[in-house]
Amino acid sequence: MSAASWTLCIDFGTAFSKAAAAPLDSWARFDPAWVRPLALAGFEGGNAFLLPSAVFVADEAVLFGAAALERAEAYARHGRMALRSFKTLLSVSDLDRALKTRAPTAIDPHRLFTMRDLIVLYLAFLSAAIGRAQAEDPELAGERFANRRYAAPAWRSGDSAGLHTSIVALFSEAEALVEKAGVRLLAPEGLEIAAVEQLLSEARSAARPLQMGLIFEASAAAAYTSIGLERSAAHMVVVDVGAGTTDIAAMFRSGGRIYELPQARATLKQAGEFIDRVIANLATEASGSQRSLQKQTALWNLLMRQMQDIKESLLYDGRALLRYGTRTLVLKWSDLERDRDFAEFRRNLQHAFDHSLAVACRHAHLEKRSEIQVIAVGGGSGAPFVQDMLRHARVDAKRFKVAARPATPDWAHAEEFSGNLAPVFPQLAIAIGGAIAPDMMLAAGGED
C-alpha cells in the first residue's frame, strides 16, 4: 500500500507533537495492523513517538525539539526561555495580529523574529520529522499522503474552524521552508541565525496552496473509540487532559456523522503542567531550600527534568522519592490531595464534567437515547482521579446509563503492535483517531 492511499493526522500539542497515518478506508474497514503511529523523535532516546513542541533562539542558531529544551535549561539563569504552547497561541480570536507581534526578548534576544516566524520554523521542523519517520516506515515511504489533517480543540476563546485558512497558510510556508532547508532542520545544532531570515523570506515567496483538513480533537476521540465496538452509544463526553489545558466536549452521532454539542464545551487552564507546578512547589517547600534562590532554582530544574517519573509515581504508587544532594525527599499522594490549588483543580474538573454530562443527557433525552459514553484522552487520561471521576459519573435521571470507556481501546493491544502501542496510546490517541476518521467528521477542509 502506497502513501497515496493513506491519511496523515498531525496533533501539535502544548508539550509534544504527534502524528499517525491510517488507510483511507479505515473507518469502513478497520484493521489494527494498518495503524501507523510515526516515530517523529527518532530512536535516540526518550519516547520515539513524542516530539517536544519547542523552539529556542540561541546566540548563534535556532534550535528545535529536545535540543531546544536542553539549551533553554542551560540559559534559564540568564532569563532566556524556549517558545512553547503553540496550541494556545493558535487559539486566539485575532490570530493574524498575534502572529505579527515580535517575540518577547526572553525568547528572541536578537529581536529578529515574529511569532509567525517561530511557528513556521517549528512546523517546518515537525514536517521534516514526519518526512524522516515516513521514510523509515516501509509501508509509507516513497509517496505523498492522499489526505493531510491536523487536530485542534474547539476553543471557547477562538473560532478554530474560522482560523483554519490562516493555520493552513502556516503549514504551507513550513512546507516551502523544508524544501529549502532539508535535513538541516533535524540537526541538533539547529539552523544558523544568519541563514534563518533568508530561509523564511524564500519560504514566504515559494509557498504554494496546501490542502489540509481540520478535525476537532473530541471528534478524533469519538472516532477511535467507536472503532471495534459492536454497538456504540450515540452520545459521548470526552475529557482531554493535556499539558496546557483540560478540554471537555460532548458529542452525538446522527447517521454516519458525529457532531459536537457546543453548549457542553469547557476549557480549564489547569492540566498537566499545572500539576507539575503544584508538585514542584510541594517539593521545594519540603526541602527547606526556598530561602535560597540559588538552591531553589537548582531544585526546580531537577524537578522539571524528573517530573514525568515523579508524577507517575505519585499517581500510580501513591508516593515518589527524589534524591537532592545528600537528602532524599519523599512526596506522597496525600500531600497533593491536601494542596489547595490541586483541590481546586479537581473541583473545577468535576464541575465542568458534570455540566457537559448534563448537556449530553438532555440532548439524549430529546433523541430518545438512554446511554452516554464517557472517555478521557491525552497524557493525563490515565490518572486514577480522572478515571475515578468517569467510573463514578452519575446523572439524576435513572433512565440513563453512563458507560466509561477505557483510555486505551482493546485493539491497541493487538499482537501486530508487539506491545509498543498500548503504553503510549493516550498520548497518540488524537492523532490516531484523526487519521481513522472519515471526511464527514472534519470541521473544515473536507468534502461537503
Task: Report on the architecture of this protein.
This protein is of the alpha+beta class. It folds into three domains: 3-214, Nucleotidyltransferase, domain 5, CATH 3.30.420; 216-270 and 350-437, 2-Layer Sandwich (Nucleotidyltransferase, domain 5), CATH 3.30.420.40; 272-340, no CATH class. 40% of the residues lie in helices and 19% in strands. The protein is built from 13 helices and 17 strands. It has helices at 65-75, 86-89, 95-100, 115-136, 164-181, 193-206, 217-226, 272-287, 293-317, 333-338, 340-366, 384-391, 425-436; strands spanning 6-12, 16-23, 36-37, 51-52, 55-57, 61-64, 147-152, 191-192, 213-216, 235-241, 246-254, 257-260, 266-268, 319-324, 327-332, 371-377, 401-404. The strands form four sheets. Strands 1, 2, 3, 4, 7 and 9 form a six-stranded mixed beta sheet that branches. Strands 10, 11, 12, 13, 16 and 17 form a six-stranded mixed beta sheet that branches. It is globular, with a radius of gyration of 22 Å. The two termini are 27 Å apart. The mean pLDDT is 85.
